Amino acid sequence: MSVPDVTAAGGTTPAPAPVCVLRGITKSFGATRALDGVDLEIVPGRVHAILGENGAGKSTLMKILAGAEKPDSGHIELGGQPAAFGTVREANDAGIATVFQETLLFGTLDVIENMAGSSYPTSRGMVDRRRMERTAAPILRQIGLDVPLDRPVQELTLAQRQLVEIAKALLVRSRVLILDEPNSALQRQDSDRLFEVIRRLADDGVAVLYISHRLEEVFSLADTVTVLRNGKRIASVPVGESSIPEAIEMMLGSKPEALARSLPTPAAPGATVVSLTGVSTGRLVRGVDLTARAGEIVGLAGLDDAGPRQVMRLLFGQLKARSGQVEVLGRTGAPRSSAAAVRRGIAFVPSDRAEEGLALALPILDNVVQVHVGAFSKSLVVRRRQLRRLAARALADSGADPARMDAPVSELSGGNQQKVVFAKWRAVTPKLVLLEDPARGIDVGAKAEIFASIRELARQGCTALFFSTEFQEYALICDRVAVFRNGSVVAEMAAGEATEHTLLGLVNGQAG
Amino acid sequence: MGSEPAIGSAPATDDGSGRSTRGEMAARLGVAALRPRRLGNQLGVIAGIVILLAVTGALHSSFLSVPSLANIAQAAAFFGIMSLGTVFLLAMREMDLSVGSIYGLAIVVAGLLVEHHTNPWVAAIVGIVLAMVLGAVNGVIASVFQLPVLIVTLGTLTAYMGISAVLTGNTTISVNATGAFFTDLGGTYLRIPLLVYAFVVMAALLSVLFRRTRFGFAVRSAGANPRTAVLAGYRINRLRILVTALSGLTCGIAAMLTFAYFGAADPSQGNGYEIQVIAAAIIGGTSLAGGSGTVWGALLGALLISLISAALIQFGVSANASYVVTGTVIVAAVSLDALIRRARNRRRTPG
Amino acid sequence: MKRKAFRPRRLSVAAIPAVVAAVVLMVAACSSSSTTNSSGNAASTSKTLKHEKIALIQLQSSPLTSQMDLGASYAASKANSTFTAQGPANLDPQTAVSALTSDVSAGYNGVIADAYPPELWMKPMADAKSAGIAVSSVDTGAPGSAATFHVGASREGLGAALAEQFAAALGKNARGTIQPGICVPGLATLVAVITGFTTEMKTLEPGVKVAAAFNSTGAPDTNYAAWARIMQQEPSELAFFGVCDQDAASMIKVKESATNPKYLIGNVSGDDVADIKAVENGTATALIGQNGFVMGYLAAKYMLAQLQQGRAMPNGWLSSGLEVITKSNAAAAIAVRQANTAAAYLKYYASTISKAEAEAAAGNLPPVASQLTTLSP
Q1: Which residue among A49, A305, A465, C136 is buried most deeply as judged by most CB within 10 Å?
Q2: At what angle do helices B39-59 and C7-38 cross, to 10 degrees?
Q3: For chain C, where are the alpha helices, taking DSSP H only?
Q4: Interface predicted TM-score of the whole assembly (ipTM), two decimals
Q5: How confident is the model over A490-504, as pLDDT tens digits?
């Protein structure tokens, strides 16, 4: 079926026949209906973005296409033929490659081995690593991944691992490339490079399916946008015929202005709570000077390994300072272990919630009360009723549904999972909260709720240190921002001056 | 900071409040421990036990007599008490292979002490404390060198067994098994050996410890995701040592009750028990994946294993065929555990 | 923690009892029919004898215990009864004891047990006897227990018999040292063999010294390594001998790959055809067998006689004799083991059996404890 199509570059050309069609896809997980009769047409040579809040069904839809899940009803057509994928491998073989949100690499294997996966080239029955390297090198260069090819993947940063994932998918030259929030942890220049690659792939005739929360990106990159809400398809429109506010409205069913106003105003800061003087850990933190006061939200801006994450981990007892003075919450010296940090009243929200923030197999309740039971509960016995009350309150404060506590936390969407992580810490009323990219992979609605939660904590006198890979967030939530470059603080400014452009320039060594 | 909210101040939307009230009352009555929750997990084992009893009993009525059942329960208790401790280890994603050797060494040490005219009650306390220490040693080595307890116990399994052999010169120690210790602890009450009562009481206590204390919660948390637990302020090394010491404690108690029953100590006792100990816990529903477990399940698992052996003897099946059956059941149980876990993982992360 | 919405669990939960029940019933069905079938190849005679159910509990599986089972099962089949072999695969006395207690309620009429270690068996045997079960012991006895009848080989006698063969091979007035190996140092029944050897050797060859036994260990690979080390370090010894099954195989292998070995080797074990072949070709001087078939046969026969005809088992230790395998009779020893039928064994051990039966009939058997202290076979 030929539909008039407006590409981002302007002009109308009749769209080619879809390479992949989904009709009436429905999928439930227990009592939750994740997708309800969704139709989708994926057209080669076009970048097709899927938008939607958490729980709207984006990830499920993508997983079904990728072969990781099977729909309860509905059918899939690939190249005009009906198709059904039992495994991701089958989908891969059919020409659908996927880059998942949580990286699925083999940590102990190196870059080349991960890219090869199970299709290692062989020569005379033996593995031909040279040929693999030759094939892989140009792709990695394109993406701009500059790491030694024999480095084990678990030693790479999250950003680098995602690039390897993308490279792996590119290697297979698929007909359909699905990207699930691929650059949620990437810095701007890495993102831009990725967009170039995606654009080029699309021009080569690949159909790209792109799931992201970053609306600006979507509207600059994609050709078509499909909005999902509550498992249903609300609309599929060419990008030129829509706008960001309209997209938000379709996603949320409400006007965007309401959200921005809902953030409570900051209160005046109090006594100094955190003080770092000339702190170094060796390579990644070099002579950092930093202070933070009670009730302040201080942003630590920087590129991935520039120091902010490391400072947080140092304050949480995960890294040791080699020199310098640290004073936290009235005590000299950083905590010697995370256990000590927790008991001092420090909280840590890690960027990788699945690996470090949650116990996915356990119920929501167990996750929310985890810190409380471990360090602050006064009774030897676990008092179910009191804990449920505590958890309910913490969940409500974090914007989550307090009635739903017994399901395993793995059943929740990403945004709701992050709220559980927040609830875990709110339950023990910390005095210092270290936020390592708290809004990663979270949609607009959940982000607003979490930011409101952070503001609320600050209003109650808690101090927050905030790091994010999206520079526009800093002005939104922080009171002031310390900019890091190469392990030291190069600039400090009030939130009002911390525009995306300024920050980007400073972290990259340009004068502000 | 971190104090619990004042009662009544929370917007209580928690469901099941009626159930909690009953729960609190039950706890006050001290019966909470005896109410096995999540019966679903153990349904399979219970059904297996019931079916085996029914089928064998129908064909040989003497199988269901009190002495016969008491014997089955006793044979289960010899290794089953240790399974109760193993549940904690498995829930923390650890495994202790030296349980049989700790058991044997504790018996030997107690036997030697009594042989040299120590009061058997004192010898028993020494045996129990020794077993706890031996277990803790496993945990300490594992924590200091950051090794899985499994690996450490590969070594201590042999080491402890060797110490037994050295201490006894490979001969049996026989003691004058008179006196209250042997007749009371090793005796039979209402035709059931004391060992069986001890088994049930320990299951009740350890079940409460596992499900309703901070310690049990910490163990399950650490097993579900060790990294997250560390970042939530748990001291994993300390937990590990406590859990291995607890496992040692169960070995010690089982050992002393065995010693009281037999009135003799032989260095080969406990040889190879680790397989049955771990199998009982897994058959009972404790997953190898960690993060959860069931103490009552381990008791049921031990009963099932013992029951199968007894049924095979009843049917006159030769020793060699018996291994095939017991082995098959263990494989079946572990496979089912894996299948269930896989099905659970496939239902992850919608939206 | 209430709702568990995992549907797959219900299906797999039902599977466990099904699996358990099915497997147990299947094995029971096959096995009980095979026990009645395999109980001897002789057509069952005397249908007038009441059917009895007996069991023999061993401590572990070995060629010796298979022989015992064969003997006992033949005796049972001749007497219209069923026999079951029971016991753990590896040394586990507690499980063996549990089997006895299970047998009591499983309707067994008589149980023969390898009562090691004796102390562990005291109470259970007494309980079994008072429950009306006939008990006796085989191979290892429990002096003072309810098993007042015991069939087994003279432990010292086994050693003495080997010493005789070595002395004959060394000739008169030999001088030098003989090195024994023991697979479980300190184990009384094994130590007794070495004691018997040493005593006899002192009488026959006063100039020969028997060294303290070294630990040859139990596992076959470490056993071989231990023997290889000793035999290569001291090839000038007069002879080496062991008291456990695997010692023979190790010693033979080491000697066969040695250049120009002058020492003698021999062992107390007799059921491995490969080992006997080494005797046949002269590598090994002698093997002393423990007559497993005779042990099982006699133990079962007398137990069934008590159960069916009221003829009480004699009290005391009945020696099942020993088998001296040398070059001259190695071929016959191999032949009977390759045939591996009860009939062949009966014929082969005929004189041993009738000697034992005569001894039993005469009464006045020596006490059970003397199995470990008498030098005579």
Answers
A1: C136
A2: 20
A3: 7-38, 63-78, 93-105, 118-130, 155-170, 188-204, 220-233, 245-257, 273-280, 292-309, 330-339, 342-348, 350-362
A4: 0.81
A5: 999 988 888 877 787
Query: How close C10 comes to chain A (CA, Å)?
Result: 15
CB-based contact A363 C5, cutoff 8 Å:
no
Q: Are the C-beta atoms of C276 and C337 separated by less than 8 Å?
A: yes
Q: Which domain holds residue B175?
A: 40-340
Determine the length of chain A: 512
From residue A27, alpha-carbon distances to A229, B273, B341, B351 in Å are: 14, 47, 21, 10
CB contact A478 to B (< 8 Å): no
Alpha-carbon distance of C258 to C228, in angstroms, equals 10
Q: CA nearest C133: which of C36, C53, C79?
A: C53
Tokens of A465: 């240190």
Pick from C236, C330, C232: which is nearest to C275 by CA? C330
- Give the pair of three-digit tokens for residue A318: 């995960």
Tell me how many degrees the CA angle B73-B79-B82 measures, rounded to the nearest 5.
120
Q: Under an 8 A CB cutoff, do B220 and A366 touch?
A: yes
Q: Report whether A406 contacts C1 (CB < 8 A).
A: yes
Number of structural domains, chain B?
1
**Which residue type is seen at B61?**
S
CA distance linking residue A148 with residue C253, whole number of Å: 54
The count of C-alpha atoms lying within 13 angstroms of the C-alpha of A486, restricted to the half-sphere facing its C-beta, is: 4
Cis peptide before C117, with omega less than 30 degrees from 0?
Answer: yes
114-153 in C: which are within 8 Å (CB) of B? 117-120, 122-123, 131
Answer whether A31 touches C (CB < 8 Å): yes
In the complex, which subunits touch B with 3 or more CB pairs below 8 angstroms?
A: A, C
Asked whether the beta carbons of residue A362 and residue B5 sit closer than 8 angstroms, the reply is no
Q: Which of B1, B217, B233 sits opposite A339 (nearest CB)?
A: B233
- Give the span between the Cα atoms of C374 and C155, in whole angstroms: 8
Which CATH number fits the domain C45-153+292-321+342-372, given the four candidates 3.30.565.10, 3.30.70.1230, 3.50.50.60, 3.40.50.2300?
3.40.50.2300
Which one, of B276, B271, B272, B273, lies nearest residue B165 by Cα? B271
Q: What is the pLDDT along chain C (377 residues), one digit of tens a residue?
A: 334 434 444 444 545 655 666 666 666 655 554 444 344 334 444 457 888 889 999 887 788 888 999 999 999 999 999 998 888 767 778 888 888 988 887 889 999 999 988 888 988 899 899 888 999 999 999 999 999 999 999 999 999 999 999 999 999 889 999 999 999 888 888 999 999 999 999 999 999 999 999 999 888 888 999 999 999 988 889 999 999 989 999 999 999 998 888 999 999 988 888 999 999 999 999 999 999 999 999 999 999 999 999 999 999 999 999 999 999 999 999 999 999 999 999 999 999 999 999 999 998 899 998 898 888 88
Provide the shortest C-alpha distance from residue C9 to chain A (in Å).
14
Name the CATH superfamily housing domain C155-289: Response regulator (3.40.50.2300)
Q: A24 CB contacts (<8 Å, ≥6 apart)?
A: A37, A38, A39, A73, A74, A75
* Chain C 146-205, residues with CB within 8 Å of chain B CB atoms: 184-188
**What pLDDT does residue B288 have?**
85
First to last CA, chain A: 52
The separation between the first and the last C-alpha atoms of chain B, rounded to the nearest angstrom, is: 36
The 3-class secondary structure across A12-64, one letter per residue, is: EEECCCCCEEEEEEEEEECCEEEEEEEEEEECCCCEEEEEECCCCCHHHHHHH
Q: Does residue C15 sit at the B interface (CB-CB below 8 Å)? A: yes
Which domains are seen in chain A, by residue range?
1-95+175-251 (3.40.50.300), 105-173 (no CATH), 262-345+430-512 (3.40.50.300), 360-427 (no CATH)
